[in-house]
Amino acid sequence: MPFRIAQIVCLAVSMLVLAGEPAQAIDVRAAVLRVDYQVPLPISRFDLRPDDLGVAGGLLADEDNNTTGTFLGHTYATTTRAATPETADAAMDEILAEGLRYIVVIARMDDLLRLTDKAAEAGAMVFNAEAADMPLRDDQCRANLLHTATSYQQQADAVIQFAVWKKWTRLVLIAGSNTPDVALADAYRKAARKFGADIVEERIFEDIGGTRRTDSGHVLVQRQLPVFMQDLPEHDVVIAADASDYFAPYLTYHLWTPRPVMGSAGLRPVQMHGGHEAFGATQLQNRFEKIAVRYMKDEDYNTWIALRALGEAVTRTQSDDVTTVIDFLLSDAFELAGFKGHQVNFRDWNGQMRQEVILFDDRITVSVSPQEGFLHRTALQDTLGLDRPESACTALGQG
Amino acid sequence: MTYASLPFLLLGVVFASPALAGKAFVTNERGNTVSVIDTETWEVTEEFFGGNRPRGITVSPDGKHLYVCASDDNLVRVFDTETYAELPSLPSGPDPELFILEPSGHRLYIANEDDNLVTVTDTQSRTVIAEVPVGVEPEGMGMSPDAKWVVNTSETTNMAHFISTDDYQIKHNVLVDQRPRYAQYTADGSRLFVTSEIGGTVSVMDIDETGTPTLVDKISFEVPGVLPEWLQPVGAKVTSDGKTLFVALGPANRVAVVDAESLEVRDYILVGQRVWQLAFTPDEKFLLTTNGNSNDITVIDVAAEEAVRSIQVGDQPWGVVVIE
Q1: Does B199 touch chain A (CB under 8 A)?
Q2: What sections of chain B are H helices per DSSP?
Q3: Which residues of B touch A342 (CB under 8 A)?
Q4: Nearest residue, CB atoms, A337 vs list B155, B212, B214
Q5: CATH superfamily ID and name for B25-133
Q6: Which of A209-213, A236-240, A259-263, A380-384 has the weakest average pLDDT?
Q7: Which CATH number fits domain B221-319: 3.40.50.800, 3.30.530.20, 2.60.40.10, 2.120.10.30?
């Protein structure tokens, strides 16, 4: 039986032979705006935020886009700014005053929303490269906001799918007490319900503050944590919901009952990590490390792929008009290779990038979700995160 | 009998009668070896060290020298196809993955994935004679039958770059779908097929007498029960009569059979897991596929368009070439 599907849309936009004379010259200008917060030191100094966090991903995107641009007469330049929550608005004003209309923002939800609305007034669009909060993909979505950062729900679904694939379905959920921890824990509860796992008990690990750098902290941890983890019902896995990073890494080897830890420690859901080599990612890592002289982190990947999406849109549409770019990015014609096995693109109902989630044990890619056997009527990647019927977002017109 | 099948039949007669055993060489990416298969008995007769992460593989026009892209050694290793003795290596530039040898056997064009370059190496003097800057992550390498053009595909830039072999300048760039992997001309040079792994398509270009490409169509694939995202076109080969195109579909574990003129997909042949590269036997009676996740080779009967046997080889077979 003959099968043939003509990809009319795709062909129409890309049927240009770019021979001899280049197409119309376009100079694409973008910005990365990172908001830095006063936060306690991370539990591990391996997790200290590098000065060029996210920004380095933007540099790599410029390099990649410019190489492609050479053949088309397009150039790319991205300016970068770091701000505090207090100076972020002024920084955004400056960016917009310079005429930049594509801004990658690395910030928390409240700041992100305020900056996005400011950008909207100037006809600019924003890529969210950090905030995982669900309202941004739900009733707080914006018409000019796309998310390359994964949501808490995508992260939780990725972990729980793996646990269920392993048939480790009896979960203990240990959640932090701060607002983001509570939101993340909620995503784990939903994921457990969605994929048929049982949370047999939940405990809250209170954040009582205090310094994270002490000379012999592990001594107390080793004595106290097993007690906290005592007297639990039979369980297969401990799930840690610690978005604010104050206790999860302590769990791994200080449980009462020996069990694997997943979530905010142990097996963690990430967008990219420096050890990921599958799907041709070695070249991405090498290019990044040449620029940054360190390993890639999630914020770098999120920024890189946001600006690569912009570059792809300009390449295919031959335009850097904001409406044209957003329409293209949300259309079926847009596809991008993200080094995670399948193409990535954006959900037209809430602007979230569809993508695989890597499960990382802090050294290697242990697995990549979605897992085998989880089915979806349209796209496997949509088994992770808020699906069309679940999202209250209407700003993008496809709710 | 139709005229179309006549040349095919003649070929079969010419090559089949003396029963001279040919050899297939398979690079095992993870096993760091090359497996040798007797194409008469389909037995593995030898497995020898092929360098670190051996991938692309080809053979000199006289059939005497085997060239292997040893990706992690950053060079092209050379072996005697009779004795399997290793000969002096060729410089390749960093991380060579795929390459193409011109019909004279003199110049080898090598894609350097890490450096956005195509390296041109002289196989006799064993020196690099040119480096051509191309798009991000060069991968697929094709050559026009008249050897005037080398086509390189860049996986992140998503273009086919047409490099003139006279002056090593890029003369044409054609945008294709995501992660273009392989470029294959028809034997008469009038058509070029470029596979896009993540895009899931094969771009079809008509090539005029000056070598200028025009994108005319894209072939898509559909297999009931297989999710579209698993249909990832990688290796491709076209019969020398230009009538049939075979496309390896990676994790879909199938080779698509495409009418190379009407561009209709005729059939899907089930092969091993993660089918990657393809090679015909010189008589074109058989097509061999490397199946990276099942560690085997599937032998396809070209005329019957069906899989006839599978052969276990080393760890993660990647590339394959067959000699008489």
Answers
A1: yes
A2: 6-16
A3: 198, 229
A4: B155
A5: YVTN repeat-like/Quinoprotein amine dehydrogenase (2.130.10.10)
A6: A209-213
A7: 2.120.10.30
